[in-house]
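Researcher: We're teaching a course module on how sequence relates to structure. For the next exercise, students receive a sequence and then see the predicted structure as tokens, so they can try to spot secondary structure elements on their own. Here is the exercise chain.
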Amino acid sequence: MTTTAPGAAGPGAALPAAPDGAPAGALPPGSSPWQLARRELRRRPAVRVSLCVVLLFVLMAATAPWLGTLGGWGPDEFDKSAIDPYLGGQPLGSFGGISPEHWLGVEPVSGRDLFARVVNGAQVSLLIAFAATAIVVVAGTAAGIAAGYFGGRTDTVLSRLMDLTMSFPSLIFMIAMLSVAKDVNRIVLMTVVIGVFGWPGVARVVRGQALSLKHREYVDAARVGGSSSWRILTRDILPGVSGPVIAYTTLLIPGMISTEAALSYLGVGVRPPTPSWGQMIAESVAFYETDPMYFVIPSLFLFLAVLAFTLLGDALRDILDPRGGRT
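Model: And here is the predicted structure for the students to work with:
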């Protein structure tokens, strides 16, 4: 029977090499989970494409004020020469008014440049999605670690709070709260409201990991050695749950993007003149027969963003949390 030296299975220790026929997630000697992730991501063409699309959207959102004016138009500038006033404000030219002056065409009636509005809409959508995800991950990780490590009454209270939050009709509450809120920053309000209802999912995943890690030998050794609970949580438990948390975080982002788009589509999210993909799709419904490109372009950007983040998140989950991906 082979024995393992105490402390060899710490959170940063390398696992033994996988023999032939071993699971694909096994780590070779000297490899960290991040090295495995980079290696596996390079091996998957679809994931590489998704990663490139994600980076492209992030870059587009980060440079939106400059990139949006690259075509010569701001998101709120009206170009009456690009629409036909005798046809109800329909864009002049083919495919919704696509031309060298307007790279993705213009909005009907207003003549606003679609490229500038889509780019600035990406900044709004991704800003809300990333900020809400950060709230969810921080709150969920903190609650999950506390519940799993301390157990007892702490675990009972936090677990019941998770159940209560998950059973609450969050979408109805979001719509109601955003509808009655007046004279507030809509982006901040949407970020907080979406984030408040998303943390229990992360908390449950982290709680299960923390329950397993707190009985490991290196945690017991740290506890016997006189380490404080804070030191154990930050030095031993948190690194052990980082892989599943990062994988779960990537999967949260497309859901947050969709939620923001849905709320804006319903008219309770981002309001004009601030551009948003969901808001643009809602406005384009009235013109889908006469100007289908006005509907297609923001819908395509929303679809590509959600798809790219979903594929990347699935890949990271399979690599960093293979057991969680099978359950």
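Model: If you want an answer key for the exercise: The beta strands are 83-84, 90-91. The first strand starts at residue 83 and ends at 84.
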